Predict the structure of Bifunctional NAD(P)H-hydrate repair enzyme.
Amino acid sequence: MKIFSAQQIYEADKSTIKKEQITSEALMERAASQLFEWVHSRLRGTQVNIVLFCGIGNNGGDGMVLARMLHEHGYSTKVYVVNYSDKRSEDFLLNLNRLKEAEVWPDFINESIEMPELSPNDIIVDAIFGIGLNRPPAPWLGKLIQHINASQAFVLSVDIPSGLPMDREPWDPSHVIQSSYVLTFQVPKLVFFLPKTGIYVNQWEVLDIGLDQEYLSKTDTDFELIGRPEVLPLYRPRLKFSHKGTYGHSLIVGGSYGKIGAVQLASNACLSVGSGLVTAYVPKCGYHSLQTAIPEVMVLTDSDEENISQIELPFEPTVIGVGIGIGLNEKTASAFGALLKSVAASMVIDADGLNILSQNPELLKDVPELSVLTPHPKELERLIGKWDSDFEKLEKTKAFSSQYNVAVVIKGAHSIIIYKDKGYVNTTGNPGMATAGSGDVLTGMLTGLIAQGYPPLEATIFGVYLHGLAGDLAASTLGYEATKASKIIENIGSAYSELFRQPEQNAQENN
Ligand SMILES: NC(=O)C1=CN([C@@H]2O[C@H](COP(=O)(O)OP(=O)(O)OC[C@H]3O[C@@H](n4cnc5c(N)ncnc54)[C@H](OP(=O)(O)O)[C@@H]3O)[C@@H](O)[C@H]2O)[C@@H](O)CC1
Ligand SMILES: Nc1ncnc2c1ncn2[C@@H]1O[C@H](COP(=O)(O)OP(=O)(O)O)[C@@H](O)[C@H]1O
Ligand SMILES: [K+]
C-alpha cells in the first residue's frame, strides 16, 4: 500500500472532486459517514458519553458531521469547537450550521476558557487538527491536548492524532494527542511507523473514502507499506524437478570465541528459509558446536582458533551472509576487507561486519553492488552519522544507499528497507523480537532467500516481512517475553504457510 504525503493527499482530494463532479462538502460527508459507521457498528447505541473536540478546519469539519450523525442516532454527545484561528474552512462553517440546525449547540474553547471536565469513561473524538497542521500548536492548545491525554478516556483520532505533523517530529512531544485508535482516511501516514512519531498511535485503521483510484495508482510515492498483498507476488514457488543445487549455496561467515551461537542461528535460519546448501565459515573453536547443533550445515574453519583471520574459500558461494558475531579484531577486519575485494556475489552484511565498515570507510567502495546492509539504529548511526530526526535519518540512509548501490534495512519496530530514493515499511514483528539473536536470524533468512534466486531487494522486502511474521507466530503461542531467536526460526515454516492461508471469511464461504 502506498504511503502518500499530505500534498499528494490534497491532490487526490482535488482530483476526486473534479472527476466525480462532487463538492468538497460531499466528500466530507462521505468521510464522516465512514467514521460514523465505524463507531456505530461498535457501540450499537450504547449510552456512553461521546465528547468531540473539533478544530476549525476540515478535520474539525469531519468532527462536526460525525457529531450530527451521532446525535441523529440518539447518542449522547458533547461538542467543543477548539477555536484556534479566525480562518475557519468553508466546509467546517457549513457543518457547524447544520449541527446547530440539528439543535446541537457546541461550546467554544479558546485561550481564556477553563478546561472542560472529562471522565475516564468518556469516549473522546479528536478532530482538532488533521494533516493541515503546519506550525506548533499555541501553548493553550498544548495544555488542552495534555488535558485530554490525562483523562484516561478512550481517544479516537480522526485522520491523525492532533498535534502530530505529517513531515517532521512534533515541536513539543507533550503537545500531541495520545490516540487509542486512529481512523485515517484512504491511506496510512508515514508518521505512524517511525519511532519518534509512531508512539502517539496505539492502533490505526484505514477508512476507504473512495478517493480517485486512478490518481492513487499512477502517483509514485517515496514510501510503501509492506503487507501480505505486497509480499505474496514476490514468492518464488519451488519447482517439482528441482534439486538442492537449484536453490543456491549460501555461505555464512562469522563468529568468534563466545559468539559462535550467532552463526548457528544465522545458518539455521538460512537453511530453514530454503537455501539449497549452507556452509558456515567460523574460527576453529566453532567447529564442534556447529557440527553438533546443525548437522545439515557444512563447516569450514579459519586457521585461527578464536577469530576469523583469513578467509579462504574452496567453492564459489551464491551469496554470503557476513558479520554476525565476528568481532572487531584487526586480523578479522583485514580478512573481511579482502573478502569484499575478492567476491562479486551479493552480500548480506550485519553486526560487526557493519562496524568494521564504519571504522574503515574506505572498504565501502568494495561492497558488492546490490548487497544488503542490516543495521540496528546504533550500527546505522556509525555508518551514516548522527541524525536530528527520524526524517533526517531516512534522507541520510537514502543518500547512503544511492551512493553505494546497496539496500539498507533500518531495523526496529517497523523495519524500513531503503533502496535509493524509496522506502519500504514493514508491518510484521512484535516487541518479543527485541531479544538477542533475532537480527542474526534475519541475516540468515535474507542470505537464504538470495541464494534461492530472489533478487536482493525482493529478498529483503520478502525476508523482513517473513521474519516478522515468524516472530508474530512465535509470540502468539509463547508470549513476548519467552519469544527468543531460535523460536523465530522454528516458525519460519508456519510463516510461509500463513502467507497462503485463506482469510477465515473466505474459508467459511468455501464450505
Ligand atoms: N482527502 C482527504 O483525505 C480528506 C480530508 N478531509 C479532512 O481534512 C483534513 C485536512 O483539513 P485542513 O486542510 O483544513 O487542515 P486541518 O488539519 O483541519 O487544519 C486546519 C488549518 O489550521 C491551520 N493551522 C495549521 N497549524 C496550525 C496551528 N498550529 N495553529 C493554528 N492553526 C493552524 C492551517 O491553516 P493556515 O492557518 O496555515 O492557513 C490548517 O489548514 C484531513 O486531515 C481530514 O480530516 C476530509 O474532510 C475529506 C477528505
Ligand atoms: N519492538 C520490535 N518490534 C518488531 N521487531 C523488532 C522489535 N525489536 C526488534 N525487532 C526486530 O528484531 C531484530 C533485532 O535485530 P538486532 O538488534 O540486530 O538483534 P541481534 O543483534 O541481537 O541479533 C530486527 O529484525 C528488528 O526489526
Ligand atoms: K485529528
About this structure: The chain has two domains: 2-221, 244-499. Residues 59, 126-130, 157-160, 162 surround potassium ion (ligand 3) (CB under 6 Å). The longest helix spans residues 456-478. Residues 244-499 form a domain with the UDP-N-acetylmuramoyl-L-alanine:D-glutamate ligase fold (CATH 3.40.1190.20).
